[in-house]
Amino acid sequence: MRKTQITIDVELDENHIPENITWNAQDGGIEKEETKATMISVWDDKTMEALRIDLWTKEMPVDQMKMFIHQILISLGNTYQRATGEEDVAQWMEEVAEEFAVKSAIK
């Protein structure tokens, strides 16, 4: 079996607030790539719940966070469609993402 690794390094200030975030994915040619935010979700099949880590630096602008969340909402719809084949629900999710974009004033 082949293994690969994706890592995220987080530098915290004295109050445990992220100051710098870098990520590595050697198979993708990514090494110490800086980012201002990350959202990671994993599925715990024992407790039947999603576990999340949401981190962003003090330097992450609010307007960029809004765009980040909008793009995640769109990608969730795409992932849902690929996983379930339910085009109607995926389309609804995309509509929700567009409504978010309007309400958050990024479109």
Characterise the protein shown here.
A hairpin with a 4-residue loop joins strand 2 and strand 3. This protein is α+β, with helices and mostly antiparallel strands and 107 residues long. The model has no long low-confidence stretch (mean pLDDT 97). It has two helices and five strands, in the order βββββαα. It is globular, with a radius of gyration of 16 Å. The protein folds into two domains: 58 residues, no CATH class; 46 residues. Helices cover 37% and strands 35% of the residues.
Unreliable stretches covering 5 or more consecutive residues: none
Broad shape: globular
- Domain unit count: 2
Strand order of the largest sheet: 1-2-3
Described by strand count, sense and barrel closure, the largest sheet is: 3 strands, antiparallel
The portion of residues forming beta strands comes to 25-35%
- Cα separation of the termini: 46 Å
Instruction: Provide the residue-averaged pLDDT.
Output: 97
Order of helices and strands, N to C? Answer: EEEEEHH
Number of strands: 5
Radius of gyration: 16 Å
Structural class by secondary-structure content: alpha+beta
Task: State the helicity in percent bands.
Answer: 25-40%
Number of helices: 2
